Amino acid sequence: MSEVTQEKQPVVTPVRVVIALCLIAPFVAMLWVGSYSRTEPTLIGIPFFYWYQMLWVVLSTALTMVAYQLWHREQRARASRNGGGER
């Protein structure tokens, strides 16, 4: 009898670690209030407390886009390794 052995792909891969870091970083930055609870330095008259949070809106968007692209690239690679039929 011939047995077809399917290699199990690891659940935790380096790409998934990067994806997790991209998605967790904004939460850590916003929940660590002590790091930005001050008024100086100001940016065009806006206290640090406010512009730091607004900066993270843009950074969070960029990090989410990176995570999304990495996820899709990994899923396409997994599908091609599995024969293209499964995700």
UniProtKB/TrEMBL annotation:
Pfam families: DUF3311. Keywords: Membrane, Transmembrane, Transmembrane helix. It comes from the Bacteria. The chain crosses the membrane at residues 17-37, 49-71. This is DUF3311 domain-containing protein. It comes from Streptomyces tamarix.
